[in-house]
Fold each of these.
Amino acid sequence: MMNVLPLGLHIPEPQPCFGRADVSGSHLSDAGRVPRPAVDVEAREIRHLAYDLIRVLDGDGRAVGPWSGACTADQLRSGLRAMLKTRAYDARMTMMQRQRKTSFYMQCTGEEAIACGSLTALQAGDMNFPTYRQQGLLIAQDWPVVDMMCQVLSNEKDRMKGRQLPVFYSAREAGFFSISGNLATQYVQAVGWAMASAMRGEGRVAAAWIGEGATAENDFHAALVFASVYRPPVILNVVNNQWAISTAQSVAGGEGATFAARALGYGIPALRVDGNDYLAVHAAACWAVERARRNFGPTLIEWVTYRAAPHSTSDDPSKYRAQEDQAAWPLGDPIERLKDHLIGRGAWSEPRHVQLKAELDEEIAVAAKEAQSYGTLMEGTKCSPASMFDDVYKQMPTHLREQRQELGF
Amino acid sequence: MPSLTMIEAVRDAMDVMMARDDRVVAFGQDVGRFGGVFRCTDGLQGKYGASRCFDTPISESGIVGIAVGMGAYGLRPVAEIQFADYMYPAYDQIVSEAARLRFRSAGEFSAPIVVRMPCGGGIFGAQTHSQSPEALFTHVAGLKTVIPSNPYDAKGLLIAAIEDDDPVVFLEPKRIYNGPFDGHHDRPIVPWSKHELSETPQGHYTVPIGEAVVRREGSEVSVLAYGTMVHVAEAARRSVGIDAEIIDLRSLVPLDIDTIVRSVTKTGRCLIVHEATRTSGFGAELSALVQERCFYHLETPVVRVTGWDTPYPHAQEWDYFPGPNRVGRALMRLMEA
Ligand SMILES: Cc1ncc(C[n+]2csc(CCOP(=O)(O)OP(=O)(O)O)c2C)c(N)n1
């Protein structure tokens, strides 16, 4: 008789990220090893790219392999600046939350290369459908940080009129779609936007953004279905920062397959990329955008990274992940890695780095001062309560007019 | 009797039931190791193991869908939706599946599940962490909808919900998780330990689903409220000095019609308070019911104080929240009419 084991559930356990800070671990491809196909490649020809890891910077900070491309020193210095500014912005806004000037904040510490590097592949007229962790998309294009801060502070100059949770920016001009708090809803909207671009023949590209945790939502799968059927110009970004609040990536299904591999069942080409390697980010994003722009359809990119900061100001990561893991920053700090590369190239130096950091900290501090002068959530002026009845409909219906009067306006 | 917060009372109810009945399982996003973002399931995984209290993928439809399947198998699942605002992807499973399984199978199958979700505003959660979606459930045949206003009821009602053979939507007003709310946002929360209804018996007891309770006797006007608004009504009553009778509905479906009718017949006036938007809100149902049953006893029209028909704003939420000032003014208007 066959020996039948009793049934039992498999409950995923969080694994330490890549064996601590060892970025040359066996399950991570070495820098420069992964081939770079032509942009008109068929999805089935590059299935392995969904399991490999595209990396350009090696352990010594040199750029190697077919994805190393030809970024100029100027481009890289401006990438470094964008990442440093994003980090300075996050630090300042977190402090403001601690000072109770706003209710809430979310950092992207450790993930700066992904948004900052991807942006360089896009053009004016393209549209991002971000989550709350892509502030780098705005900062890298020098969108005024005072404007962003006013949103976080919900003050009188907040263009969202004090309605949205802090960090839920919207900047149409900057190709930054309004953020929803409901995870994954934007993913399928990005596909629709890209379909519209294709229907109009206007050549614009959409970039959809999602965290690995939220790929479990229905809307993620709906997006892949539509993207695979209609092949619109959309980049399907999955930011795998290992954690969804307290929940390890394994619970979202990241144990048996990579997130990139989810695209394969739909016949969508997929890349898996070291998201802490600014050069790899830039190269992969350019590849996917060119593909989209030339009408070869969607690409899904899994950016492998690590959420170095807490999920939000309401989170306490010590309750669910090891201190060593947090300190180890698997894949390294994207800022340090790019800095080392530039220094190796003779295009940067330690003193210039220190000076730039100081300049940016100062710039952010000055901006913060200005933003605060327009009020904070707790003090000073903010948008009148009467304004909450605006924009519910294009034209205010009578019942809302009456309710506004009832409130005293 | 120990004094508990609402969070502790909710946890205690699950603990008691998981210890008594190994069919009871609890799950949801961040529910297992972390104990839930509001810590309602803290410690349960340690006590009962990861097969009975576990983390799920971020998929509300999946969470409720598996609950329906487990319930049909014979388990007693308690599913957590992290915020009521995020139940929409699960809405189809709740409304088309859980609610109708018994009816469509002529009783062959059923979904004895509890779907817990924190609801309501007043914590600077903006439009996606503040909603009160109760009317979206009360409109659906086959569901029970419950919403406690204090730790004692929270524990008793949740135990009753877990034991109930029908699907129960269990709404937890997060504004009062840590303390009763006296209605003034600039004043600190009064700790639950200072409130008589935080006295929560150990072990098993139930508060029957479908029974309202008169929180404060009064003769001049009946106030129908639930959840956080019970405390707002009490603060308003104190500040305007009107002898209002405050009824805590506790269960919206099934609704304790007798208690409502008895009270309004006695006082001749009725004020309804809820946080949800006004149009087609649960207050509309209550108002219709009072007019159907108590019309000849009414001395004034029924009045509603509710959230406005706009999404919940972040910075102006205290102008949205039906606080004691608005409720107090409505009470005075009712008495003058
Ligand atoms: C539909 C929905 N369910 C639950 C939540 C609560 N929530 C907010 S962020 C988050 C974790 C998301 O993790 P991930 O997608 O990995 O992105 P990350 O925050 O790590 O960038 C959860 C569960 C939500 N906002 N929307």
Note: Residues A 133, 181-183, 211-214, 239, 241, 243-245, 307, 311; B 29, 58, 60, 82, 86, 89 surround thiamine diphosphate (CB under 6 Å).
Amino acid sequence: MLVFIAKRLLWMVPSLFAVSFLAFALIQLPPGDYVTTYIATLAASNEVIDQNTAAQLRERFGLDDPMLVQYFKWIWGILSRGDFGISFEWQQPVSGLIWERMALTLVLALSTLIATWGIALPIGVFSAVRKYSIGDYFFTAFTFLGLAIPSFLLALVLMYIAAVEFGQDVGGLFSSEFETAPWSIAKVLDLLSHIWLPVIILAVSSTASLIRVMRANMLDELPKPYVTTARAKGLSEFRLLVKYPLRIALNPFISTIAWLLPNLISGSVVVAIVLNLPTAAPLLLQALMAQDMYLAGAFVLLICALTLIGSLISDILLALVDPRIRLE
Amino acid sequence: MRDEILSRGVTRRAVLGGMAGVAALSIAGRVVAAGGEAPAWAQLARDGKLPPLAERLPKKPMVVTPFEKAGTYGGTLRRGLRGSSDHNGILRMVGNQSLVRWNLEFTQVMPNLAERWEINDDASQFTFHLIEGVRWSDGHPFTADDIVFAIEDCVKNSELYSSTPAQLSVAGKAVKVEKIDDFTVKFTFAAANALYLENLATPLGQHPTLFAKHYCSQFLPKYNPNIAEEVKKAGVGSWTDLFRARCGDIEIPSRWGNPDKPTLDPWIVKEPYSGGATRVVMTRNPYFWQVDTQGNQLPYIDEINFSISQDVESLMLNVISGKIDIQERHISVLSNKPTLSQNMEKGGYRLLSLVPSASQQCQIYFNMTHKDPALRKMFADKAFRQALSLAINRQELIDIVYFGQSEAYQAGPRPEHPWYHEKLARQFSEYDPDKAGAMLDQAGYKMDGSGLRLRPDGQKVFFAVDVIPTLYPDLVDALELVKAHWAQIGIEMKVNTIERALYYTRGDDNAHDAAVWPGPGGLDPMLDPRDFFAFHPQGSRYAIPWSLWYTSNGARGEEPPESQKKRMKLFDDARSTADLSKRGAIMTQIFDIAADEFETVGLCLAVGGFGIIRNNLHNVPEKQPDSWSWPNPGPALPQQFSFTS
């Protein structure tokens, strides 16, 4: 097992290099560069940039260098001094911008994971065990609704109801008095009182699909002979379910842990923008749109690193949970 | 001389007649009784933590007449920004303290930090007399030294600005700024620059008052030999990066990112606009140098809270649920008007109407300098352009896309402007497809058997019009209608919806067939004449290479035809003519030529936008020009906005 983990860790190094290069190249693919986008953004409000300034900005940001040179400057900064470069847009070191956002993203991702699994697993098992019961039909209907409603629409509708009908403060993850306050117990409680809305919205669609996956997996397992054997041996119905078929049926859940984070970041962009969440998604989107390369590159790099770590974790967990999987 | 300057505006005063019956005029130097100050400051002053009001204000502070009535202190004004890169949303509200400013009607330049000025006869020398005793927001005196520093040491520093901003150079030479005494500075240009005062009143004219010498000089190698250490400590690449991060520039986000930077604005940064910020908070400047007619120090409002919405819909939601006090930016499109009107009662607000300073809602630019010779020849054919203009059913377009709120228009100053030019504005704007067809036949674009027109070289007439759907969705709708109209006379057009940066890159590469953009120059024809000749290297999209030739003095681009060169020469004359009526005569010559050449095709007159003002917010003019040159609502003086409790 240890050898396996060490090998996987070693493999991550070249993967990260490849990924960072691809990310950097992709960010540069769209026409124009940061300065073009900057001019275009100003022009959007009919504002004019001084004619000389554009050329000046390009020179200052080193945008006239070839892509490879820019990439190696950037990656060398990260390797040699942990310097992720400067965000063009903000004139601030990238590292100062990303950490808090990434932390809040992880909090949101984990909360959503817990909510999704907490709802989807029991319901999935229930629907499988009580196949074609009224409860199963009810949850099936709910599932399809959940899948069909786009989450940004759900976010807008919930926000509208909360803001216009109940006069609630919606959007964001903190009340205004805590927005810039240092971390404290009160701030954590404030976060908890705000986070449920985005968690529900983000959980709805993934819950729906996970219920279906769980139900199908359980239905596959339930008629198998080992279940019958266990039942014949007099195991209580609940212990029986948890001990054998559930463990097997969990397989797809665990093996997708690795995708969870990137999915939550990319899948939640629209919701995060609508709800004004201070997570990584809106900043990443903005950085991509503004072609703010170093900021966007740092985000993509971090998300990739987290994905690689996540897939390692799911492999280890799979080995622990699913008796059919062996590392050798 | 000053009176003459003031009277210059009078001829244009009728422009926005009735926009503000009791315009908030202000005259520095009027003696007013020492008045009040915000209760919080009074307390601090009593405790000895802040100098008393009399020491914080100039001896003769600038007096601002409140728009409706003297206000009361207090309150937090809530306004919205959108995501990042919305720094100019702050500038428009807070950062308008230039040497001079616009009056409310956008017709006349008023004193601001300069209480008066003299201009020499050929308009190449400007001597400004500053209000004595103005202080930066940290209490340090503001003097002529600051202005000399800002221009001579900062703006003219070639490492910081590799070329001097266009406003501050004439004929390729940078302005020279000298200190006469502590409160007098002289600007000398290499040649006449009659428009300088008007330019100075626009946001891009803020450089002279942007950098406080006592603070910003610490980031210049000239004044700070230890700069290298500080650069290292701040973790930035060079001293220029450090300077920009700490002292900002007119329009970059970091202007609002440093709470320590001294400013002359009514409010100063408390929670900065930095990457990842979810809001920006500005707080009252204890040293702000303007008072109301009773001598009370401005601003009335304690704080401004800019919430940052990533999404316009959530900004709209905040507006209709009454969580925004004044907003027009981002929500001012026509399609939001029904929602805003419906929710007036619920949100507790009234509507604000914006007078467009633009001329044209949608201007079509055919690329007359196209790289493909056949297309270039076609677009350069005046009869072709005229025929296409005649084939557009403008009334249908106005009814469908603009809810009937516009009129057919080509280009040029708006009808209420004294320089309005009938021929330029109205020619070929009637709907006459038969005549259009006949003109095309005659010009050699014959119809083939399938009802499509062919070029003289036998190719089908086909071109694409670039448009940015995310920016101006109405232009896409308008173009779809135009496409249908042109199809009726056998012209095939593609509505080329593209992303913003690509639109610009295609323009820069001269790779577009045609493009659309709202046409400026309705109320400010001198400030942006891009539709009257090839003036703007990004905006005059019918001939970008010509405008490059013009702006680079012939070094780049492509030499334009005679009629363009003549207009360029005339415009240079107009720019150096101080007398407004003479200037108008020169501009009329330009309009005459532009009307004869018919280079751009316009659809309809620009339509005004909307905004909201909460019912408890007062002293806000409910009709304002909408322009970057008049950066609404700034020139309406937000420092005299006031809440009733």
Note: Chain B touches chain A through 64 residues (CB under 8 Å).
Amino acid sequence: MTHEIRETAPPNEPENNWRQYFKFNTDHKAIAVQYMVTAFIFFLVGGLLAMLIRAELITPALNVVDRPLYNGLFTLHGTIMIFLWIIPFNAGISNYLVPLMIGAQDMAFPLLNAISFWMIPPGGILLISSFLLPNGTAQSGWWSYPPISLQIPPGQPINGECLWIISLVIIGISSIMGAVNFVTTIFWMRAPGMSFFRMPVFVWSALSAQLLQLINLPALTGALILLLLDLNFGTQFFKPLENGDPIIYQHLFWFYSHPAVYIMALPAFGIFAEVLPAFSRNPLFGYRSLAVASLGIALVSIFVWVHHMFTSATPSWMRILFMFTSMLVAVPTGVKAFGWTATIWKSKLHLETPMLFAMGGAAMFLLGGVTGVMLAAVPFDIHVHNTYFVVGHFHYIVFNTITMAIFAAIYFWFPKITGRMYAEGWGKLHFWLTFIGANLTFFPMLPLGLQGMVRRISSYDPQYQDGNVISSLGAFLLGVSTLPFIANMVGSWLYGQRAVNNPWHATGLEWTTTSPPPRNNFAEIPVVKRPPYDYGNPKYSVIEPTESDEQRRREIWER
Amino acid sequence: MNRRTIYIDESPIRFERWRKYLPSWLKRFLPSGGGNAEDHHGKAIFGFIVFLLSESIIFLSFIFTYVALRLTHSQHWLPPGISGPQLSTLVLINTVVLLSSSLIVQSAENALQHSRLNQFRWLWLLTIGMGSYFLIGQGIEWSKLDFGLSTGLVGSTFYLLTGFHSLHVLAGVIFMVTMLVRSFFPGNYHQGYFGVSAATLFWHFVDIVWVFLFSILYLWRD
Ligand code: HEM
Ligand SMILES: [Cu+2]
């Protein structure tokens, strides 16, 4: 039996108050939209840089940009995608969902929340403006290893590297303030009856990610302060020629930046845990294990950072130890993947756009995770370190998994956020373009890396050209794929069909309030009496079902 | 809106059962199963403590850098002719003043808790004075040293650690001055006094950090 899962009806006219998004606003829902839209604009900028990189790599020779500019392109591409796309977007979607999902009226510290957001645009603009400097942007990659990052022309106190550091410190402070806010919100603002084991898995994974921010991000801030002192103030922490030690920077950097991959990935896992049950009409399989696995992933990921330093003169006992811990991450991660699969197993799937993106993302996470475990093996990593294999691995995670999850979340909660439905056909088109484009772009990188193509180079041996051409074509396809998305979002927000409160018949407190929710989210603070994810169990519903709700449920599901 | 505390928790660890045996300061970290949104003071202090814990990681990263550099570069640690930081009476007096100010600031907070506003102001002012004394002492120590920021690893790390710590002392002093000024506006503290509690906590934090810095900077001899 196939029937439309989505329900549309024209309820009350939502107010058209777009002006609130351009103001200093303390409503968590407005801040969330500000975060998400800002992050998406940075995503477009980062994507543009990526297409320039791919344009250069169509041919083996150097013919589109010069070398310093090429270095700047990949440095800013990586920095923007991580620090200005995924992390702020996750802050945005968590900002929207966490208070709603736990039945709170706002975040714990609304003013702090607004301040955290307003640090992002200046940080980003400062970073991008370094293209205007006489010597261009930072050029040493997103990890900015000394001594390369300290090699700047003398007599230029204001240089790309220095702007890079300052903007990252600004974004980092914003993230810390956000994390304080999220953790306090989750601990203190839960509605009566919303115990820890009634929180949706998205809240668990947001909590885990934010705890990682609090524990690990300060190490990056510390490292950046030291780097800035070395760069501009004559200290010698990381200068090998003056007895400093660049390896210490690597430790501090990866102590943050490995957990950072989970700061980015955990909210994506949370999104899968919300979308997959809703469109397979099954309760989430193993709710408690998935909830605890989020914390488990966070915990283990604190102790794996040296797998990025297997070739940095690391002593072998350390290599073996961190090989072991890195493979250990696969255990809680495997629990997650198993839970998702079991949730959709043997169920009637409703393949709406959010579900397509979630399933596509979860499936591609398999390849990302497997290549990750491969890389964790020291002998293999020594072979492919700094090749395109690594680039392929992490793009399968950051694009093919996380960015796909982000799109799933946008489509899934679009009706809630805007009070309008998006256009399904355009959404599906967007999905297929993205899915095909992503695999065309990132799959060829894996064999290229195995054959020895080094990363971060602008010209290469002609034997690698075929794979690079495919990859570049895929990248342009990805560029094209954002067009139907943007058209859909803008068009639907302005002219889309009105959405009902719960168009997907999903469980979760956010669906019990109006679309869009009122300023304080709930007319009355809800009292939670039921576990989450009670799909298919008619005796459960998150709020007490009213007469008409029950009627509607029966009409739709028992046909 | 009423505050409804509902004690249900199906966590396997049976959180609510053993929660009631905890000391009250620990309960603060482990709020019960929802319905706490109205406890604004507890919420704000919780957030502030989370922030301080996070902030301490920056200090840890600096301390890690110092220890790692010193252990791996002991033969180049002091450039020729440089004697490094000395445990002088100046430093000792400074340390004693800073550490004892922790007691003063705590009794200031207690005074406010018992609504003795004037006593609070005097003790608070005394803490501010002791903090400023420490800052001046730190400045004098810097001016007497025979090395600068770019004098080898010893200079880089010493000025980094003491400088970053002094910035925190300065922030604490400014924070306390703000709270002192606020105390003269009627009605500011009638509903709890988050700012004063936070400043007190911050001051303890600055002191604890100094204990660690003092040990590794002045007491560690090769
Ligand atoms: C089973 C889990 C995973 C394991 C064992 C793993 C392992 C590794 C290893 C060993 C490297 C270093 C390769 C090298 O430089 O030689 C690496 C690189 C990387 N991984 Fe993973 N990974 C896993 C999951 C993830 C996830 C979930 C993400 C992102 C959310 C991620 C993002 C990255 C990134 C960004 C890099 C490259 C950093 C760079 O060199 O610039 N990985 N991974
Ligand atoms: Cu890693």
Note: Residues A 258, 261, 304, 307-308 surround copper (II) ion (ligand 2) (CB under 6 Å).
Amino acid sequence: MKTPDVPTLLDRMADQTRQYLARHDIDNPMVVGIHSGGVWIAEHLRERLGVERPLGKLDISFYRDDFSRIGMHPQVRPSELPEDLDGVHVLLVDDVLYTGRTIRAALNELFDYGRPASVTLAVLVERDGRELPIAAAIVGEHMELGTREQIKLRGPEPLRLERVTLETDGDADA
Amino acid sequence: MSDTVDTPVLAGATRLPEPGPLPNHLQLTDDGQLRHLLTIEGLNRDLLNEILDTAESFANMNEKAVKKVPLLRGKTIVNLFFEASTRTRTTFELAAKRLSADVLNINISTSSAVKGESLLDTLRNLEAMNVDMFVVRHEESGTAHFIARHVAPGISVLNAGDGRHAHPTQALLDMFTIRRHKGDFTKLKVAIVGDILHSRVARSQIHALNILQTGEVRVVAPCSLLPANVDQLGVHVYNDLDAGLKDVDVIIMLRLQRERMEHAHLPSEHEYYQLFGLTSRRLQLAHPTCLVMHPGPANRGVEIESAVADGPHSVILQQVTYGISVRQAVMSMVMGAHQS
């Protein structure tokens, strides 16, 4: 099955985001991407939206809820939040929303940088399989996938989505 | 610690054999992850770099307003110190607390040892409290190996210094300091100066520098403070400080333990300073951007001049700061290895 074209989804996300920000009276939010795919998407989205604030990057490895099961992530990259989050409207961006656990960890980490005025979740793709009560306000595409299927973002240039079939039931933490 | 030793040892009372050379089966999992950290010896370059990379992420985190992450929430870490050390114990404690672990500090010299309780009995009692990690410092070489051999599966042991044998986290934080300031090890000349003979720090540093393929490792000391087999460690030996410092990129000064003076290793502190003290004048022999390091606590006016210890080349206090990040990296990696 053909996967959606990423630039088209980014255009769609940018339109949705503009409308969302206008509806909620939010001006100049801080765009924060979650490593790695979320950062790639966040960079493009920030550019399309003409956001002036520098990009924020989150690595949620130290905040995951599955450390006691699968241990240390081998490639932890430092998070970079360019300024205090107190009172700032955050546009949190990830590539794929699946179980919701990554977003839960990202929220925990964000609050260690301050108390944002609001956090809006934007994702390139959302799929079924949520394990936590988390929903995105901005969605590039909704996809129905089997339990042994995953959708992965490849990049950074060019960005493309790839559908992957796992040999065993997936335990993706997206 | 020899593999043949399996009898209980009285804490601080019985001398343990010197550690064997191949502890890898003990400190690594079958797939090469760090299960315990007992010594630098035998670890490979990739693993050392992985520790330093992980420490880099923690260093970034330690600069945040909120320095705590939930990684080791629910874990209990015991600082088992048979030998006093304020800085090492404090940085281990802070590292554990910033990972959200619970920390128990036990000073054995004032508890079970004086009651005649054996080391293994102490361990068994602590294990019965469902602890997850022991950080061990002991005056006898091999104690951390001994404990690692006897702890229940799932418990990690970190060596926080054993006798003259090893002090792996100190060596790792030194490597982290060098890498942060100098980058590529292969182009560096590093001089370790002082009491090499009695220094577990120097042994661990030499192993780490060699594993990271440092361009040139020098040891500089009077003959009385050099081990007999020092040339087998892959280092260049200097007995003259001026010659040993020439063009080096990093100088690691070692603490001169004053009790050595009483055992005729050296004539006097004054003479030692004249011959092996790092002064502003001598520092000029090194590369102009040379780093000055010291594992602390420094004896000012014995091995290092105050002006140098506090001067622009000194990264001594940064070593202390980085020590927290490196210990966080090691703690999270060993706990992760048990889980995965």
Note: The mean pLDDT of chain B is 88.
